[in-house]
User: What shape does this take?
Amino acid sequence: MNALTQFASELSAGRIRVVDLTHTLSPDFPAITLPPEMGQAWPFRIEEISRYDDRGSAAYWNNVSFSEHTGTHFDAPVHWISGRDLPNNAVDTIPPKDFIAPAAVLDCSKQSTQNPDFLLSVDFVTNWEKEHGKIAPRSWVLMRTDWSKRTDPAAYQNFDETGQHTPGPDPEVVQFLVKERDVIGFGTETIGTDAGQAFHLNPPYPCHYYMHGAGRYGLQCLTNLDQLPPTGSVIFAAPLKIKRGSGSPLRVLALVPV
Amino acid sequence: MTAPLQKPKRKNPILRTRLPVPPPSARSRYALGLLRGAAQGRLELQVCRDCGTVQYPPREVCRRCLSDRLDWKPQAGDGELVSETLIRHSLELFFRERAPWRTGLVRLPGDVTVVAHVHSDVPRPPAKVRVRAHLDRAGQAVLVALPEHDTPNMADDRIMREMTCDPKFRKVLVTDGKTAVGQALVKALVNAGADPIWVGNAEPWKNFPGFDELKKIPQVTLLNLDVTDQRSVREIAGEVAGRVDIVINNAEVHRTYGISARYGTDAARAEMDVNYFGLLRLAQEFGPALKARGADGVNSAVAWVNLLSIYALSNYPPHGTFSASKAAAHSLAQCLRAEMRPTGVRVINVYPGPIDDEWNQLLLPPKLAPAGLATAIVNALKAGTEDVYPGDVAQDWLARWRENPKALELEAANP
Assistant: This one.
């Protein structure tokens, strides 16, 4: 029995739980909001091809449209200008082994509830490590905020006249995670890997800037992070193989020991 | 005097909804000349270019000198009701259902006598009247004799209610409440007596200036209607389409690019998705319910308003892709009109020039204020006109387009 057959038998015996970290792709799920004069990411849209009717009497199927960054989705390094010249920086050329990696789940839900503009800091990470151990190299760092529990789109987006107010990492912690912890990527429950007000940080959108600049990945619009242990789970996150794609919606699964 | 219309009672759900039957609509090609002015609320009659004779009914040649050089010219319409007839019986279903119905003969200046529907506030003949051209429920031009002076509640008259699309006591859907035009429309509709008013709230996380104020209006109910999302349109139609009497589709995307000013198709696609496909989705989901209620009492389903653009007639190259999307919508609106016409639901197309909003910031005045556009739309509903060209720029473009479309094409390219 090799490791994989053992894995399969553990899975079928119910000793490994599969947690779906994916939101349902639906027109109701909020799309990223940019100033209207900029290019816009398409929201998810679905229209019937036929439904056992005159358009196709035996079949129900749909046409769908969306951007590479709609719904629960993966960001490739080429998405950001800092990662544009890296090798294997698009979803079709990323080594497939990178799509399976362990996760460290940092619970920032209390802080994010108190302060929607909460920024994850190096101190927060080192304190977390005192309890859970050092983040293993090539891990996903998932920032749990319970933001996915905001089912009202207005509360999820959380806009006011000064823009969006959602939690994310500060510039120092992103560099720390890349350089000191060699993480594979950063994942959030909010609509971006960066905070809602990250345009005003230096550099703007530091998680995009540093993670993608170092060839690392992003996952956003995750859900069910509250069902993951701080350490010990493994993430399956394989984006669609879009030629020179900058990202894609995807099904993100976590394997959790019971 | 016309009694003021009372708020209609709720519908008796065990009775069959009356099916719409159009009034008789056969006309000769020449008689259709009356339609051109009537669509914009203007009375025009044939005038002989050679001898100046005014004539009615329309004919191929002048009744006096037999010249075929006849022009349709605006008429003041002030005349005298010389006789009247109360129709108590008709084999035409439309009049049979509405008898008794008052008609009469009106003598107009120029020794011309016309047949007109007669408003109930007009005294018995002889009486001074104002003749107006209206569109009836078949979309055909007819003449209506109004009292010499306005009377209280004259819009509530039974005959007027059949000619117009007055929002009073009608239930209205405004597809986008986020824009200044949408908000002005809702306020104008409230003042015109519409109730309730459903207002589209696409992308509910975006709260634009003035939107909070709109939510406080008691007649207003917000709906998560997004015309780019077929499922949303279908679900909202499922909720309310059976009650909507007037649809006002003001949802639009307006970007200010020609072909070379913006690389790619994303902005043009967004314009097409809202301005053209949005109308198509709405028409497919809301159309059937409106068609079924074209004769549903004094607050029947009555109108479908499309916010188009004068640039639908001829492309304005600095806003070239927007113009193209509105031209597509203009064409589709003609199709919608053809499909709606047998049911008595009027399709009103509105062709404004530039609206005074953020997307027209760089255009010089005159620009149409959102409140002015809203007033023009509500007035069109009250008057029952079908084509509306509100504002100076729209009127100017319309005149130039009719005069010489090639010249307009050239001049628009070098504004």
